[in-house]
Amino acid sequence: MPHHGNEEEHNSSRDQGSNRDEPVIRDHRKVDPVTGEARHPQGGQSAASEAGAPADSDGDALAQAEEILNQVEVPAEESVAQGTEAAAAAELKNDLLRLQAEYVNYRKRVERDRAVAGEMAVIGVLNSLLPVLDDVDAARQHGDLADGPFAAIAAKLENALKTYGLTRIDETGVEFDPTIHEALIQQPGDDIEVDTVSQVLRSGYKSGERVLRAAQVIVAVPA
Predict the structure, then answer these.
(1) Cα dihedral sign for 34, 37, 38, 41?
(2) What is the pLDDT of residues 12-62, one digit of tens each?
(3) Distance CA 175, CA 173 (A)
(4) Is the Cα dihedral 57, 59, 62, 66 positive or negative?
(5) What are phi and psi of 15, to 5 degrees?
(6) Which of 57, 61, 140, 169 could form a disulfide with 215 if both were Cys (CB 3.0 to 4.6 A apart)?
(7) Residue 161's closest CA among 135, 136, 125, 134?
(8) Closest listed residue to residue 130, CA positions, set 203, 66, 34
(9) Do residues 163 and 199 lie in contact, with contact meaning Cβ atoms separated by under 8 Å?
(10) Considering the entire predicted model, what is its pTM?
(11) CB contact at 8 A, 156 and 179
């Protein structure tokens, strides 16, 4: 094709166009295909180190945060729940101990009341039989119970009442005791230094330590 104008200008413009349109190719291969050596080893190591730095820093940050959390005593929800359950268990235990103490006191009170009720029942029966015992004593003094079936019945009755703790107060020659004796008559006596029971007019009775009836006696007093 014929060219018009200066040939140098034409060649220059062609070179400029070829340079402007020619693509630029960059070789990013890490291994040189000619020598077989790795390209930019320092850059690669720095990049690797830079790439690994965030992971290491993240690990250190997590370790520090965990250490701080371990040092700071902050009650977690489970700890709070356990503390609440422990307090409830302690309160329940105290309630059970109080209930047990109340039950023990109630049982002791019931047993004591039962024992007192039983004792009062026995005393009531014994008191009701005291007039019968007085008649037995009177019959014995008159000689009506010297022998025979009635004497055996009287002896069985007295022995049966002894099993309930009934004892007779009929001793003479002992010091007068106002808790078990009732003085009906006082008589001066010879060689008497203290008030002494000289005669029993009616026997007294007691059940255990409880006096059911005081003995009616004559007391000899110092002259």
Answers:
(1) negative
(2) 545 544 445 555 556 666 656 666 666 654 444 444 444 444 445 555 665
(3) 7
(4) negative
(5) -65, -40
(6) 169
(7) 125
(8) 203
(9) no
(10) 0.52
(11) no
